[in-house]
Amino acid sequence: RSAVWDVHSDASMLGGGVGFLLLQTLHPPTMAGVADHSDYRHDPLGRLQRTSHFVGITTYGSATDAQLAIDTVRTIHDRITGTAPDSTPYRANDPHLLEWVHSTEVDSFLVAKQRFGHNRLDDARADRYVAEMAEIARRLGVPEPATSVRALRDTLRRYRPELGLNRQSRAAIRFLAAPPLPLPMRGPY
């Protein structure tokens, strides 16, 4: 009966995932962390599989398995630090960056479900989805994640002054527009 199960079991998740990745690129410190420490350009399917595994485990796994996946991500994030092209330092476990990534993920999955999915959620169920996803954000290190659709939209608006395109985000967007996928996968993508 979980709202997360409703959203994450829908095929619209695929489009929501691409939307999430595109939005994520617009935050320069977040994008710098991805560009500097991710192998998405050389192993896009592996990167997608690891992200999908995390979403799958935190959605459908046991509480123990979900916490193990969260702890693993936090441990990996502990090692991810650097400086964005505009000289802004970043840490992957920075609650502000985690909140951006979490908020864009939740919003993208929810928007995809509402626009393209089977059985649109009513307002109360959409709020429940955001609230259920907030538990993952808290465990990842976001102190006060949004717990309603309105709060989620307010969070995204709050980030607008920090957003922009740079060399790294443009490269990621070009990659997402035409990833080097095997021929049979290009049509569905």
Structure in words:
The protein is mainly alpha-helical and 189 residues long. The chain has ten helices and two strands. It has helices at 3-8, 13-24, 28-37, 44-60, 63-78, 95-116, 123-140, 149-159, 167-177, 183-186; strands at 81-83, 89-91. A two-stranded antiparallel ribbon has the order 1-2. A hairpin with a 5-residue loop joins β1 (81-83) and β2 (89-91). The longest helix is centred in the middle third of the chain and has 22 residues, at 95-116. The chain starts with a helix and ends with a helix. The model has no long low-confidence stretch (mean pLDDT 93).
Task: Give a quick set of tags describing it.
globular, mainly alpha, two-stranded antiparallel sheet, 67% helix
Mean pLDDT equals 93
Strand order of the largest sheet: 1-2
N-end to C-end Cα span:
30 Å
Sequence of secondary-structure elements: HHHHHEEHHHHH
Q: What is the number of helices? A: 10
Beta-strand proportion? under 5%
Find the structural class using helix and strand composition.
mainly alpha
Give me the Rg, rounded. 16 Å
Main sheet attributes: strand count, strand direction, barrel closure: 2 strands, antiparallel
Shape field: globular
Unreliable stretches covering 5 or more consecutive residues: none
Q: Count the E strands.
A: 2
- Provide the helix percentage: 55-70%
